[in-house]
Amino acid sequence: MSTTDGYVPGRVERDYIESIGRVPHAALLAIEQAAEPENVPILDRAGGRVLAALAANRRRIVEVGTAFGYSTLWMALAQPAGGTIVTLDPDESRTSRARAWWRQAGIPDEQVTVINRPALEAFAAGPGDPAAGALLQGPFDLVFIDALKDEYQAYLEALRPRLAPGALIVADNVLWSGATADPVSTRNGAAELRAFNAAVLADPGFVATVLPVGDGMLVATVRG
Prior knowledge:
Shape: globular
Largest sheet: 7 strands, mixed
Number of helices: 8
Structural class: alpha/beta
Distance between the termini: 32 Å
CATH architecture: 3-Layer(aba) Sandwich
């Protein structure tokens, strides 16, 4: 066993990684500055860099949980020409602000489509529903989940038939500040996230792991 097993990077290591990474776009920095005082949860910057690397060759992306569009923007900036993102969030006041930041970054409106409905309601819409159903048929080659923690498994079940072979599934906050690793934790969402992690990692249809990035990022590749 390596002596580095269980090692968690500290501030020095994170600062080093940040020092050699590209400076985030000004619009990303603006979202960071707006989110913190308003207590709007967004992906941490290290997670954003990982998400961008994963999105770089993904043309059809669906995102569950937009908030201020921070993770959306990391993906949109990395996508190849012609790539599209469908992002779901019922809070129109937040997503309208997100759209302004995307435009600041030069993202064309047609690249990102927002559906302002609860995700499970939108996924249940039929293909004839122009407000959601037709946009969510897939196939998608990357899914990013960062919304209600107790619904992660339901999101994945709804999306699974809409995934392309070799698609990536990425979910944030799966360590939940350590609560998922504590079998007696009573933190809201911990039990559901623990079950979600276990189910995905045990599923023979995926090759999956959890990265100790930010609050934990699950990454799974669809076999086939």
